[in-house]
Amino acid sequence: MGVAPHRTARIERSTKETEISLSLDLDGCGRGEIGTGIPFFDHMLALFARHGLLDLQVRARGDREVDFHHTVEDVGICLGQAVEAALGDKIGIRRYGFALVPMDEALAQAAIDVSGRPFLALRTPDLPPLALLHAGAFPAQLLEEFLRAVTVHGMLTLHLEIRAARDPHHLLEASFKAVARALAMSVEKDGRIVDVPSTKGVL
């Protein structure tokens, strides 16, 4: 029996606001080569690759002098498109994935369904609104913009709950790691699944 080919995709996106080149290997080993011009975002994407066992390359240029929003959102769009393209027919995947990840005092819980129905639920019970928080110069609110772009263009259902946090850096890091690990589980192949994991026959 031969080795199954890696599930890969390459996405290019050019607008008046950003230029992005992204390549993804769902069957990688966690290598990240990231350059967006936003150091904190680079850090989050690198750990997303490591904990999601994805090989991820991102090169982005954007209007950072305006703010970080366009770059972060458009990278999310490209990542979602790459996930959807790399998954192909989705035969044999587990479909569902979940993770509960601590980062010191922060705790984030993510659950993903490769459903074909884009949906994002982000809950932060008992925490200040993300719009009030920053990790250095990076607005925590951009977590929601990034994940919404990934879920819409990746055709994913994602529930993320940040259950505890004091440090915004830890809040964001726990969230990126939890989503990455849930994604890794959901796209993993299971030899017992011989078709699409849905009674409908499609995802």
Describe, in plain words, how this protein is organized in 3D:
The chain is of the alpha+beta class. The protein has one domain: Ribosomal Protein S5, domain 2 (2-Layer Sandwich), CATH 3.30.230. 33% of the residues lie in helices and 30% in strands. Helix 1 packs parallel to helix 4 and helix 2 packs parallel to helix 3. The model has no long low-confidence stretch (mean pLDDT 95).
Portion of residues within helices: 25-40%
Return the average pLDDT rounded to an integer.
95
The general outline is globular
Distance between the termini: 27 Å
Element-by-element helix/strand order: EEEHEHEEEEEHEH
In the CATH classification, which architecture applies?
2-Layer Sandwich
Structural class computed from helices and strand pairing? alpha+beta
Catalogue the unreliable spans. Answer: none
Q: How much of the polypeptide forms β-strand, as a percent range?
A: 25-35%
What is the C-level CATH assignment?
Answer: Alpha Beta
Overall tally of structural domains = 1
Q: Briefly note the CATH topology name.
A: Ribosomal Protein S5, domain 2
Could you tell me the number of beta strands?
10
Strand order of the largest sheet: 1-2-4-3
* Largest sheet geometry: 4 strands, mixed
* Name of the CATH homologous superfamily: Imidazole glycerol phosphate dehydratase, domain 1
Secondary structure elements and pairings:
Elements: E1 8-14, E2 18-25, E3 32-35, H1 39-52, E4 55-62, H2 69-87, E5 96-103, E6 106-113, E7 119-123, E8 134-135, E9 138-139, H3 142-154, E10 157-164, H4 168-187
Parallel strand pairs: 3-4, 7-10
Antiparallel strand pairs: 1-2, 2-4, 5-6, 6-10, 8-9
Helix pairs in contact: 1-4, 2-3
